[in-house]
Design brief:
By secondary structure, the protein is of the alpha+beta class. The protein contains 2 helices and 2 strands, in the order ααββ. It has helices spanning 10-13, 22-32, and strands spanning 36-44, 51-58.
């Protein structure tokens, strides 16, 4: 489905991911600065057809001073 994403945090954009480990995963990437790669990670979104599986790459973005932003 369509949802507003611009200007929203990951938690605001995908509240249904609470309890699935995604919010914590993004927090770890932000805190550590280390990228995360996974394959066939289960995810349940607000859709009638239930669970899906995603390949995921979470890459931290850095500012000019090298800080994760």
């Amino acid at each position: 489905g369509r949802r507003e994403l611009l200007g929203r945090t990951f938690r605001e954009a995908f509240p249904e991911l609470a309890g699935q480990g995604y919010h914590e995963l993004f927090d770890r990437v932000y805190a550590s600065g280390e990228r995360h790669v996974s394959r066939a990670m289960p995810v349940r979104l607000e859709q009638p057809d239930g669970e899906r599986f995603v390949d995921l790459l979470v890459e931290p973005l850095r500012d000019a001073d090298g800080r994760v932003v």
